Amino acid sequence: MKFTRREALALGLGATAVAMLPMRASAAADEAIAAFTGGAEVGEGGVTLTAPEIAENGNTVPVSVDAPGAAAILILAMGNPTPGVAQFNFGPAAGSQAASTRIRLAGTQDVVAIAKMADGSFAKAQSTVKVTIGGCGG
Amino acid sequence: MISRRDFLQVSMAASALYGTSGFGNWAKLAAQQALTQDDLLKFDTFGNVSLIHITDIHAQLKPIYFREPSINLGVGAANGQMPHVTGADFRKAYGIEDGSPSAYALTYNDFSALAEGYGKVGGMDRVATVVNAIRADRPDALLLDGGDTWHGSYTCHHTQGQDVVNVMNALKPDAMTFHWEFTLGSDRVNEIVENLPFAALGQNIFDAEWDEPAELFKPYKFFERGGVKIAVIGQAFPYMPIANPRWMFPEYSFGIRDENMQAMVDEVRAAGAELVVVLSHNGFDVDKKMATKVTGIDVILSGHTHDALPEPVQVEQTFIIASGSNSKFVSRVDLDVRDGKMMGIRHKLIPIFADVITPDATITKLIDDQRAPYKAELEEVIGTTDTLLYRRGNFNGSWDDLICDALINEREADIAMSPGVRWGPSILPGQEITREDIWNVTSMSYGKAYRSEMTGEFIHTILEDVADNLFNPDPYYQQGGDMVRIGGMGYRIDVSKPQGERITEMTLLKTGEAIDPSKTYVVAGWASVNEGTEGPQIWDVVESHIRKQGTIKLDPNNSVEVVGA
To answer: pLDDT at position B561, please?
Structure first.
């Protein structure tokens, strides 16, 4: 068998040059949080954020959030150029305070959910979602 | 030594499940003596339930040689913990004598010499003998296959897994979970699974579009054995669409989904399960972490990372069993389950010494029938090796050194990359290399050898990315393979550093110059997860190279400097 130099340049690993290093939270993310909370302290607990540890596809990452008793939930992708993903508002007649969506992540970063509770307090949950080149399984 | 060290056993009241991780010296009862089948199988049947675990066979139906790794680093909390212990330290931990059958089966030292003495390991006809012997003791023992079964050989590739399916079906497993099976493509996987005469399990196999449990794969199955209601929950490899080509099975989504695992454990417990077994392809460190997050699992039968451990590892109230790979080991786990609780465990990792265990004649014939149409192609001798060829190790192995040489020479590249997979048997010095041997370390459904231009910066990004899959201190961010093997380039890695800071001193070996981040290099590699990859198949590249060399002679590979371990 013979191989020539002239074989087409393959789509090797090179085709997916996504940013692989963890992305830092942008100033825009901090601003979005401040706008939502009005600068109030944000506690922990009472918010369940479910996101994959490693994204199967960074272009569409399923996330869901559940915060019983919340009046509103803000979801942020802290490292995206535009961090705001969604804000869910729950009226008094809402049967549950949970929501699911899919988000696009520019790279490995933290996804944050902040819930505004009925009493005006705030709580958050966060999860690191890794976006990777992939390859090489055992 | 295995022959006299019959089994290990822990009996306990439920409260005493805590804190009994030290099982004592594995080989304390050992004495040098000739190995017999009776010794290997000796086991005083215990309790009322038996589990038989085999995993990561990678389509190895015939006996092979398989060298265990010399380097298997653990980071963070896993540093120095099983299974991240090798060689003399491993033997010391379990009280294994140098040169003993256990030393040969479980560690890498003096491998070539011990292999001459103890012979080949594995072979599904030998495995069948062991399974039958356990079933003779306990007719309703559960046989559980941890996956990576329908992948990894010439005949498996050419029959799209049918050869292994036929042989495994004859062994009558009770359940199975999955990883490389999906690289047959979802149409073929669906076709086989629809006709499978046993349970195909995976609580984390989801429909990608709707993010709901996939219909074809059930999360768990109940068995009634020895008067005990047993739930076996499947856990497929979580990172299939990342570690393997997503475009081959776009309908499916995976992930660890430990919250769903907890929901399934709660569900089966509520339905009356007295024993909860997880048949897992998570990899050992992921299983250890999952055992701390999910409560109510009695036993995890662990696969994926190919670790072979002669004793269970206890994490809180869960016992984790690691049963090796390539049909080299079978684990027998006897359990005493009373009043809805697991009260005791007795375990034995049975090494399949091919010259000691009598093959089951029916299965031998069945295997040979699968191979018959391909016999001439399989047996053709391509070359000979003077060097021991093996794959396992975190950073390199001589098989991949040879594959990288082939890529550089045949594809006229500066740098070669070979994926850090852990499957593939070993070849002893002086042995002939057949076509089958080459396929055993290369066969896959996306084996095309690409040739690509990459900047030094991008090569660095790839190395950092793969290193983080291996050395991220949080096991949930690890994919369980080894480091991508590099030919033509050396580097230094500090495994203790975060992503982006581990890899330094990248050097082009042929010139001795530092890799320039902005310069472009020609890189040849294989097993790209990207759709549309072009090039010749890797097995043809390697065959062509070995033919030209005639006799393979490799220098020790010292091109990776490892620190921070």
So the answer is: 97
Name the minimum distance, in Å, from the CA of A82 to any CA of chain B. Answer: 24
Secondary structure E strands in B84-195: 142-145, 175-176
Of B306, B310, B308, give the one whose Cα is nearest residue B1.
B310
Short-list B319, B370, B371, CA closest to B170:
B370
Alpha carbon distance A32, A81 (integer Å): 12
Q: Is B94 exposed, middle or buried (0-12, 13-18, 19+ CB in 10 A)?
A: buried
Structure tokens at B288: 């250890």
Contact check, Cβ <8 Å, B259/A50: yes
Which amino acid appears at position A67 of this protein?
A
The CA distances from residue B161 to B143, B148, B181, B371, B429, in Å, are: 20, 11, 8, 12, 30
CB atoms A136 and B412 under 8 Å: no
Hey, what amino acid is at B374?
A: Y
Helix, strand, coil shares of chain B, percent, nearest 5, are 30, 25, 45
Structure tokens at B95: 């009280």
Q: Does B21 have pLDDT greater than 80? A: no
Q: What Rg, from alpha-carbon coordinates, does chain B have?
A: 23
Mean pLDDT of B515-530: 96
Predicted confidence band of residue A26 (pLDDT cuts 50, 70, 90): confident
In the predicted model, is pLDDT for residue A138 greater than 60? no
Distances (CA, A) of B145 to B175, B301, B305, B445: 6, 9, 15, 22
Euclidean distance between CA atoms B184 and B149, whole angstroms: 12
Cα(B109)–Cα(B249) distance, integer angstroms = 40
Contact A136 B421 (CB under 8 A): yes
- In sequence order, which residues have a C-beta less than 8 Å from that of residue B375 and are 6 or more positions away? none
Written as one letter, the residue type at B15 is S
CB-CB contact of B264 with B243 (8 Å): no
Q: Calculate how close chain B gets to A119, using CA atoms only, in Å.
A: 28
In this prediction, what percent of chain B has a pLDDT beyond 70? Answer: 94
Amino acid B523: pLDDT: 96
Cβ neighbours, 10 Å, residue B464: 20
Asked whether the beta carbons of B451 and A7 are under 8 A apart, the reply is yes
Whether residue B479 and residue A3 make contact (CB cut-off 8 A), yes or no, is no
Interface of B with A in 62-121 (CB under 8 A): none
**Mean pLDDT of the B540-556 span:** 97
Beta partners for B144? B53, B175
CB < 8 Å from B in window 91-110 of A = 100, 108
Average pLDDT over residues A35-60: 93
- Position B434 scores a pLDDT of 98
- The interface residues of chain A toward chain B in range 33-62, judged by CB-CB distance below 8 A, are 50, 52-57, 62
B244 touches chain A (CB under 8 A): yes
How many CA atoms does the CB half-sphere of B154 hold within 13 Å?
20
pLDDT above 90 coverage of chain B, percent: 92
Per-residue confidence band for A11, with pLDDT thresholds at 50, 70 and 90? very low
DSSP structure class, residue A43:
E
What CA–CA distance (Å, rounded) separates A121 from B13?
A: 46
Burial class of residue B327 in the structure, from the number of CB atoms within 10 Å of its CB (0-12 exposed, 13-18 middle, 19+ buried): buried
Residue A18: pLDDT above 60?
A: no
Strands B313-315 and B318-322: antiparallel
Q: Helix B361-371 and helix B124-137: axis angle, to 10°?
A: 150
Task: Give CA angle at B358 (B354, B362), nearest 5°.
Answer: 110
* B548: enclosing H helix or E strand: helix B538-549
